[in-house]
Write a structure and sequence with these properties.
13% helix, 3 helices, four-stranded antiparallel sheet, mainly beta, 238 residues, 14 strands, nine-stranded antiparallel sheet, Glucose Permease (Domain IIA), globular, binds zinc ion
Length: 238
């Protein structure tokens, strides 16, 4: 299982699991929010996360694909453990209804369709594959569910894999030997300046930036080709 969005942990959240809607939400006011909203603005997404890809969290099936007044463009996805995910407010769809997909397949893009105050995706998960909005206890906290089932445990490892993939495409055979422990990346900062950062993958799978650049900025704004550093032991501590 994987996070359904890249940079899942760093994307600011709106409503959280089981938070009540405020009075400004009309007919929803006072009702319990049964999922998690992922959205927000940052340097990487000045217009929120509109257009960010939504990925299948596991192998599974698209059991529903609808456009509804409240949820907007909506996907219902049955995961490999038999839980039903709903993804709401999508910009568009990237899969047909009833598609069988593998983990990581693009399902659609984050949008703001339906009743929504800005680009975000609403994610909720029902145990046992049965959706019943009246049965609050059948909804699982998506973050807890992901923490229990995700692989790898560290989301930064996915970003490392992505940069390593770029490096391998560039260097081909020369890169197929041992995986480097440190890769240098040129990062374009929000103010337009650039800086060279070093990122290191430790033996326990954690990934750190030497200069403290956030992984969000790092993944969005890395320029050029990562260059491997030969021997991590010769570099200063991270
Ligand atoms: Zn929501």
């Amino acid at each position: 299982m994987r996070y359904p969005l890249d940079r899942f942990e760093e994307i600011a959240t709106g409503f959280r699991f089981r938070q009540p809607y405020p009075a400004s939400f009309g007919s929803l006011a006072g009702k319990t929010h049964l999922g998690l909203d992922k959205g927000g603005r940052n340097a990487a997404f000045p217009n929120g996360i509109e257009g960010a890809w939504l990925f299948a969290p596991s192998d599974g099936k698209v059991v529903g694909r609808f456009t509804k007044p409240e949820g907007g463009n909506t996907i219902h996805f049955l995961d490999s453990k038999g839980s039903l995910w709903r993804f709401l407010h999508l910009l568009d769809f990237a899969v047909p209804p009833f598609a069988l997909v593998v983990e990581g397949t693009k399902l659609g893009q984050v949008g703001s369709t339906g009743v929504s105050t800005g680009p975000h995706v609403h994610i909720d998960i029902s145990k046992g594959g049965l959706l019943n909005l009246a049965d609050i206890d059948n909804f699982i906290d998506p973050e807890l569910y992901l923490r229990e089932n995700i692989s790898p445990a560290n989301p930064n490892a996915m970003i490392w894999d992505s940069i390593l993939g770029t490096f391998r495409r560039k260097f081909g055979d020369k890169a197929t030997t041992a995986e480097p422990k440190v890769i240098s990346v040129l990062v374009k900062m929000a103010d337009g300046s650039t800086r060279l950062d070093l990122v290191r993958r430790f033996d326990d799978g954690s990934v750190k930036s030497k200069k403290g650049v956030s992984f969000n900025e790092w993944a969005q704004n890395a320029l050029g080709t990562p260059v491997p550093q030969g021997d991590a032991d010769q570099l200063p501590d991270f």
